[in-house]
Amino acid sequence: MHLEAGGPRVFPPIVATHLVKLACELPEDEARSLSTWTCAELARMLIRERIVDTISATSVQRILASEKLKPWRVHHWLSAKVPRDDPFRATVHNICDLYTRPLGRHERVLSLDEKTSLQPRTRTSPTRPARPGHGPVRVEHAYLRKGALNLFAAFDTRTGRVLGLLRQRKRQVEFIELLEAIDRTTPASVTLLHVLCDNLRIHNLLPARATAVDVRVARAGLGHHRAAEIANRRSHPEPVPSAYHGRPPDGADDSAGHHRTEDDANATLRSSTTS
Description:
The protein is of the alpha+beta class. It has 2 domains: about 1-65, no CATH class; about 85-270, no CATH class. The chain has 6 helices and 10 strands; from the N terminus they run ββααααβββββαβββα. It has a 4-stranded mixed β-sheet with strand order 7-6-3-8, sandwiched between helices. Strand 9 (about 215) and strand 10 form a beta hairpin.
């Protein structure tokens, strides 16, 4: 290693070779309990293996940059079992379009998901704030466990606002409750909701089990649509027995002219719950 005048440290090629070799291996292969490498950890490994006497994390990053390596970054790939066919590409394009295109004033795009096993723990004594002459904030080390909670959340992809519910269980009932909350808090001017979620079983709102979430799009004048293709809904005093298409079931009120055929709804709605 030597220094060039006014420049960074220059290391011999053997150092870069060892560094690249380490960066291209998983930390667990080197008996390191890390998920990914960091520049600081790679620098420590080079020193520990006596490749160099000293090297900084900045030098490690510079050498790796010359090799276009960033082992601290992670890219997830899709399941190999998912076919890369035309319907798959159409779904991906539709999702990307919903996330990126300008929305009309009547539209909103929400991304739904759950965070499980949140553990609320309260301290046995109140936390004491910092005081002049008494040091930092003082926190009691002992706490009480109070089970686990599940967070159901809807993220507005344009405003960044999150609507969340904390519940003790993670079932379709709680997911339906989140949909109800979305409906209650959606302004009347928004007549089309694009809801995106993954393929978790509780997200699969089949018509036979959709008595509490029968999709209502009366705002857009479209009547009822299949529950798995949520566009928008408005609560009614009494739930309709099941989701239906076209002509309303016997006894349903069609006086407002809000019921059309499924083809009419499909021609107007562009959103679906998918991920």
